[in-house]
Fold:
Amino acid sequence: MKQLPFFIRRAYPFESTVGIIASLARFNGVNPVDVMRWLEIRSAGSVHKLFYLPERVASALPSSRAHDYRMHFPSAFRLAPFSATMVVRYCPECLVWGYHSTFFCLPQVETCLIHNAPLKPLCKWCHSMLSRDLLDAPCSQCGFYVCQALNQVKYRCSPTIALKTYRAGKALAAWFKFVRSGAQSGSPFFIKLDKLGSYTEDPIDKVLITSLGCPIAKNEGVVRRQTKIVNWEVPSNRRHWKDWQGACRNIETVHLQRHEYCLAHCEGLLGYWDGVKTPRPTCLKTAIYLLIRLRLAITSSVPWLPSKLDCLGFGYIDALQQSTFIDQEIPVVLVKVYYLKLLYDASIYLELGYVIRFRVRMWQGLLHELAAPAGISMRRETVLGVVSETMLRCPHVRRVVNTPHLYICRDSDSSWTLSLACSGTQQVIMDL
Structure:
């Protein structure tokens, strides 16, 4: 293996292997194919192949003096595998320094923490830059290029730039190591975070990630919430329908005192439905309670519903408990967790101006996900957050300024919409 000369200051802190190989080629006046041949790296073709390298090769690359050489590899910060279709991004301002962060290779990172600017994706041509000569000018399709070695020298010698790259990288490293550690422990929530392709697509994920302290997550429109990961144990004995009924009675006692007006209006959505969509005034607590009772009861796509809330049974959760997919007992506490989780998720969408369409679908939805087994572990977990006080106010219990006016409407045999009086036209679907 040939030892190649490089800048005296070596690599930037948290510089990606892609950036290091490209800068090595610039410094030695060759193309990346020659660099990889000298380092005994098989022809990479796509930049994704450099995310994993044998230790003997990885340790031979010029690394930063600020941390271990492994921190230059995206695979150090992600448990899930990288696919060849994942987009690698770059920061135009960082390119001036000849810097490409290892975190720009992670799909969740869409903003440069140093410059607070959105990252740009590499085009298909630039994804294969390691198999050809580097461009001397910005790519006509995506704008990516590798700065000439002489132009990089003054930046690589700057302690200010080294400090900026180190601080940004250290903050992101702490976050992704936190997520990776949780995923390694078998936590379904952190496994999901580790696999996410974006932190910005789902408003709920965005709020949760912000609350957990992700340095790149920004959430406009919804205040930062206190969040907590809650756990529960799978019981060893089978539950009776009276256990579920008792859990629902407890929710009524704790959360629905003096909500008789809203409960009566919600009961109007039960029984025979003539196809007419009639919005009914309600409050968030009552609407979510009605929806969880419907989900616990309904076992078909065209359900028959009694005219009284108390007459709704627990057929679905009993069927779920006996299904071959779950194949484990379901704890009574799950009813409370389900209620609080749905309350939290719905409040976020409503505050962002969405109209929420709740659907009842067999073997799908939030309840099914909460009850699903997590490997061989008998523990389950999810993340619960604090709902804002404003969203919990009920105009029929106590008239206060800024009390939200909420409406629930049945719009099909197995779906209901929930919206504020000020909601826009954008709709989101939530499967119960």
